[in-house]
Amino acid sequence: MDNKALSLKAGSFLLLLLLLSNLLLCRSVDSLPICPSGAVNCEVSLRDLFDRAVILSHYIHNLSSEMFSEFEKQYAQGKRFITKAINSCHTSSIPTPEGKEQAQNIHHEALLSLVLGVLRSWNDPLYHLVTEVRGMQGPNSDILSKAVEIEERNKQLLEGMERIVGQVYPGVRENEVSSVWSGFPSPQAADEDSRLSAFYNLLHCLRRDSHKVDNYLKLLKCRLIYNNNC
C-alpha cells in the first residue's frame, strides 16, 4: 500500500473517531440528570452538578468551534474578518484570567462569579444570533441547528452554575458581573460585509469564551471536589 493510500486510510479513521466522540458527548449531555421542571426540593450533589457543568461546557465549546469553522467556510473566505475580531469581544470588559496559571491564582469565589458573568453576558447575543441566522442567505441549516443548541445548553449551564454557587456559598448574595452586547448592525445602516463581519466577530468571541469557561470549570471542579488532587 503506497503512502497516499495509507494517508487516506488514516484520515478516514481519524474522522470516524471524531464523529464517534461527538456522538458520545451528545449522548452524555442528553443523559445528564436534570431536575424536573418546577421541582422545589430537587437535591443534586455538588459533585454531580460539577460533572454536569463540565460536560455541558465542553459540549458548548465543541459546538461553538464547529459553528465558527462552518461560518468561515461559507461566508468568510478571503474577507480578512479576523483582523477586526481580535480584542473586540463584548465580554472583554470582564477581567478573566488568560491562562491556567493566572486562573489558579484566583480565589474560587471570584472565579465562580466570573463564570456566571460570562454565561449571563451571552444570553442576549445567543438569542439574537438564532434570530439573525434564520434570515441569512445560503445553506446555513447546520449553523442554525448549532446556534439553537448552544442557546439552550448555555441556559442549562447557567442554571447549573447558579445551583453550584448556592451550594458553595449558601445564603450569600453574589457580586453581579456581566457585560452588555451592543447588538448586530441594523440592515439599513450596514452593507452585507459589515453584517457578516459582525457575525464572524460574535462567533469568534463565543468560541473564545466557551473555551475559557470550559477551562475554568475543570479547574474549579479539581479544586472544590478533589481538593486539587487531579
Write the layout of secondary structure elements.
Blueprint: H1 3-30, H2 46-75, H3 82-85, H4 100-104, H5 108-121, H6 123-134, H7 141-168, H8 192-225
Structure description:
- The chain has eight helices and no strands.
- About 3% of the residues have low confidence.
- By secondary structure, the chain is mainly α.
Summarize the structure.
With 230 residues, the chain is mainly alpha-helical. It contains eight helices and no strands.
Number of helical segments?
8
Percent in strands: under 5%
Radius of gyration: 19 Å
Q: Which stretches are low in confidence, meaning pLDDT under 50 for 5 or more residues running?
A: 13-20
Q: Which of globular, elongated, flat, extended, rod-shaped describes the shape?
A: elongated
Number of strands: 0
Features:
230 residues
